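Reviewer 2 asked us to include a model.

Predict the structure of this chain.
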Amino acid sequence: MESIVEFFKNLPPKQCAHCGKAIEEQHECYGNHCDQCSEK
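Predicted model (structure tokens):
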């Protein structure tokens, strides 16, 4: 069984729901827009 830490380490980078750009934040965070799209 995989540990919860390993599970989160192995998640792919999140992508912005608007532009598709990779979001540089923790993968388990609830946000789904990059900083630039969030400001619009």
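The radius of gyration is 12 Å. The chain has one domain: 1-40. We have added this to the supplementary material.
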